[in-house]
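ARCHIVE CARD
Drawer: 12
Card no.: 0347
Subject: one protein chain, sequence and derived structure
Cross-reference: see card 0346
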Amino acid sequence: MGQPSAALSVAVICVLVAGCGSTIGNAESTTTTRSMIPRPLVERELAGLLLSPEQVNAAMGAAGMTVTNNQASMSDNSATMAPQECLAIDGAAEAPVYANSGYWAERDQSLNDGDNFTHYLKQAVVLFPTIEKAAAFFDASTQQWPACRQYTHTQSESQWSVGQISNANGTLSATATQHNASAPGWGCGRALALRNNVIIDINTCSISPADSAVKIADQIAANVSARW
């Protein structure tokens, strides 16, 4: 009778002191797995990824950016674009650009700083069913963007040239300059970023857009990562 009591005592001590080491090992394994494999985002999280007007002001060096439009479906400005292969660089979240990509949903916002605005932003987040699908779209974009060097908005007759295209740290970026803009000039920055199962699509325009599109894409990317 003495031996079972001793075994029971050892078991109790194991639970109180060591927590039964095998259980701790399992917990550590689960934590490691969850930290390495991001949870795919879902549609209800999309709107919360976009930046506030205050954050946009800081990123663009503006003072009065306000939201002028919210959309849950993509635009199509292909009718006023020549050549068509430049649509992807000209604007964010264009429906023909994402056709047949397999995306599930999108949210986008347009902002500017008044009637005679000097700053403009379109920020968009596009949800794909898997990380692989989003990555496939990003990879296709890296191949497609360099096909555009110059383009025209046929409705306004504005003429544009595209600067150097960069692909760094999971973000594709470029700047386009309008040739026939009134003084002091006009240009637009573009950024396309891949994070988890989301494509971040940014278009910023001002006298000197510089790296504002990349800054905004990076901040939205941080919002995506925070939901892993």
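Annotation on reverse: Strands lie at 66-71, 81-82, 105-112, 119-127, 150-153, 158-162, 166-168, 171-178, 187-195, 198-206. Helices lie at 2-18, 21-36, 53-60, 87-90, 95-98, 131-144, 212-225.
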